[in-house]
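Figure 2 data, in text form.
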Amino acid sequence: MGEILHRVSGKDRKKYYGNLNYFLDFIFPQRCVFCDSFVEDFSEFGAVCFSCRNLLREEVSPSVLEDVGDINLLGYVGIYDRMLKICLNRFKYFGFLNLYKFLGKLLVEVILENFSNFDIITFVPMHKKKYIKRGFNQSQLLAEYISKFFNVKVEKLLVKIKDTPPQSSMDFEGRRENVKDVFKRNFSELNGESVLIVDDVFTTGNTLRECAKELVLGGVGNVYGIVVAIDYFL
């Protein structure tokens, strides 16, 4: 029963992640997505138990990349593989929305270690058709977690104007063309503010590069990026 309640989808998501969240967590104990053990601190970390959190931390090697297109600094938690890959896939495709808590904590640690101040937090947008189908934007959930920690506002600075096919089945050139000019500014003008843009996975980097290009054209000063994982496609 616990798994049913923390693996929700569609119209039930908003109802579950509302005022009854803590009550349901207490009545129906939540289980770890890796080992199915009971997670005592579910409300803080989501569906990853203490032991599996430590195992995952041992696997990852947080680091940064410099000068990725218009992105001054890009931070990431680890490689898109093993436990981190499983965690992201459960989060994005199987309705384990509570995993944003643990993944958000990992992102905050990278930011504290590597980044200076930023004025605004934003996220890679989804096309409205895909958002309606999935019911949430995983990058937005992570951005909102980071926002609460640093007390920096989240703004939807970009919109995706074209519903593009999934990038996963394309080669490098196909991925580049697939996201070319599909993001547009959702603001009139900024005046040198620094922006942190959040996404889940960095593969070729074309998506974040396109987003950063639009932000800079709109008057953003420094653009920083933060992702959970980078893929071997690099």
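Caption note: DSSP finds eleven helices and seven strands in the chain.
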